[in-house]
Structure formats: C-alpha cells, structure tokens
Amino acid sequence: MTSQKTEFAYPSMYRVVLLNDDYTPMDFVVFVLEQFFDKSPADAQAIMLEVHNRGSGVCGVFTYEIAETKVGQVMDFAQKNQHPLQCTLEKA
What we know:
alpha+beta; single chain; CATH 3.30.1390.10
C-alpha cells in the first residue's frame, strides 16, 4: 500500500477597490466602508481619504466570489442612492 500526499491549493485572492469621483460625498464613502466592509470609523475615514487623495483605495482582500459579491453590493447601494461611486476588483 502506497501513501499519497494530498496537496491543497489556496484560492486566488482579489482586492476590492473604491475609485474616486468628484460627486460622491465623503460621508457616503465612509458609510459604505463601515456597512459593507466592517471597517471601524477610523479605518473607514483613512481609506476614504486614500480614495480621495490618491484616486483609489483598497477596501479589503477576499476570494473571488466574496469580492464579486461586495462589488455588486456597493454598486447597487450607490446606484440606489444616486451616487456615481465605482467599485472594482483586481487580483491580489
């Protein structure tokens, strides 16, 4: 009887990124980060400032399915609130 080694591969990870625009209020971006990404008020504020000053900011790193769901949630919420906020995912 031979023993077999089973190799496990970790899933690819994806960054969820918010993009800056000139119309979405900063308070809305902070709310999105707290609501959908479980960020503390201080962390949400820091990420929002990064989005504002650098043009984009990473909200979190997730598996593809979770990242895709988060992007959809943010985009739907922004659209329902009539804000042009954009959210994308990119391979980490």
